[in-house]
Amino acid sequence: MFSGSYTAIVTPFKNGKVDFDAFEKLIKLQYEAGITGIVPCGTTGESATLSHQEHDEVIEAAVKFAKGKLKVFAGTGSNSTTEAIRLSKHAEEVGCDGVLLVSPYYNKPTQQGLYLHYREIANAVKIPIILYNIQGRTSVNIEPKTIAKLAQDCKNIVAVKEASGSLDQMSQIKVLSPDLTLLSGDDSLTLPLMSIGGVGVISVLSNIMPKEVADLVNTVLKGDFQTAQKMHYKLFPIVKAMFIETNPIPVKTAMEMMGLCSGDLRLPMCPISDGNKEILRKTLLNYGLIK
After folding, report:
1. I need a surface site. Which of 32, 50, 200, 225 has the fewest CB within 10 A?
2. Residue 93 belongs to what domain range?
3. Can you say whether the dihedral through the CA atoms of 268, 266, 56, 67 is positive or negative?
4. pLDDT tens digits, 176-192
5. What is the count of structural domains for the chain?
6. Residue 263 lies in a domain
7. In a domain, 40, yes or no
C-alpha cells in the first residue's frame, strides 16, 4: 500500500521561527525528484521541539505544498496517548494520507501498554497508521508479536517503519504479519530490508539526494538487485556521514552547505563540531553536491 521512497523532511527555521518559504521549496524539490511522499514532523523534522501550534501548522503546510503530488504521512506520535490522538485527528482532518506513530518514549511502557496505546489511537481515527519502531531513541522495542496483534486487531494499522537495526526482527515481523507493509527506517538498511520483503524507506538522505534514493528503491521494486547493490554501495559513505552526529544535525548542516535552507537547529540540538563539519564538507564535495 505504501511502497516507495519517503523523505523524513526537515523543518527549516529562520530567526527561531519555522521558515515556510524554504519548506515549500524543499517539498517542490522532492516531487520534482520523483520521491513518493514526505513525512513532516518526524525525528528529522525536530518534532520534539515544535510547539503544538507549530506542529499543526507544519503538517497543514506540508499537505498544501505537496499539492497532491506527494503522499503526506504526518508524524503524530507522542509519549502521551491523548496527545497522539489529538495530533492524529488533526492530520486526518487536514487531508494527510497516513500518520507515523513513534512508540512512546521515556515512560517505557510494557508490551501490553504499547498495545493499548496504539489500539486507542487506531480506534480514534480512520486514517492509515504506520508504527515506528526505534528503540535507540525511545528505550522500548515494539516486539514482533505485539506488532502482529495490533495488525490483526486494528485494520488501519497497515505498516511499520523498522529502525531497530535487526534484520532478524524484521524477518520475524514478516513471518507473523505477512500483509503488513514493511518500510526501512535506516538508509543503510534499505536494500537489505527490501531483499527480505520490505517495500521502501522513510529516508533522511533523500533530503539532499532525493533522486538517488528514489532510484534505488524503484530499482529494487523492479527486481534488479544487481544494479541496486551498486547503488547501495555508492551511497553508503554519504549515508554514514548523515549520522556522524545526532540526526538531524548533519543533514541540516549539509543542506545549508548546499544552499537549500538554513542549518538552524533548536536546542538541545546544537551546531555540528568543527571536525565533523569538515568531514561532512569533504563528503559532499566527493559526491559533487557542493563545489
Report:
1. 32
2. 4-222
3. negative
4. 999 999 999 999 999 99
5. 1
6. no
7. yes
